[in-house]
Design a protein that fits this description.
alpha+beta, Alpha-Beta Plaits, 3-stranded mixed sheet
Length: about 230
Amino acid sequence: MTWDTEQIKNPLPAVSRRDFIKFSGMAIVGVYVAGCTPGLGLKKASWGFILVDMNKCQGCQSCMLACSLVHEGALSLSSSRIQVLSDPYGKVPDDITISQCRQCTKPACLKACPTGALTRDHKHGNVATIDPAKCIGCQKCINACSWAPARAVWNNETGKSQKCDLCASASCWDETGGPKGKKACVEICPMGAIAFSHIIPAQDDPDSYNVDLDNATVQAPDAARAV
């Protein structure tokens, strides 16, 4: 599947967050990052992590629509594995947050799954993923998540849990996903507010996945890899 730019309108140039058009365009923006930022260490994981820069995010929800499109074949905010949350009482830039799976090094959701539906996918760099054929819809993975809102999400259409797999099983996309491939949310963000990194963020810091992408090292030199 190729991106259909007619499905979602392109954003207007040089607009403020408040004026930024909802469901903005699917323009692919490249991000170059260098330097150093707190919260990112030197150890690397074979799967990797989605990082965000909330100072860049405009709340357009393009990442959500892209996620549902490549996984479910439909534009559906409720089916997205990444969520953009708005606080009507918050102040910029704290009025918008992105809730993405943290791809934990010791995922509580994986331990909680009673059927083995949630496992590490050795074919795709050990990213934790849910096998819908084995999922019984008990939602124990959602309830076990250490973060709020839970990063494993419920799919009302299928009656099963789902989580970010770094697009490893994005069956409705003609690109190769997974840790070594493309991630729809990263590719689609018109503001360059989402990036992918193998570097392990601080696992106990709720803000460690929110980084300054203009001055962050998201890819490190050779370093130890997490198991």
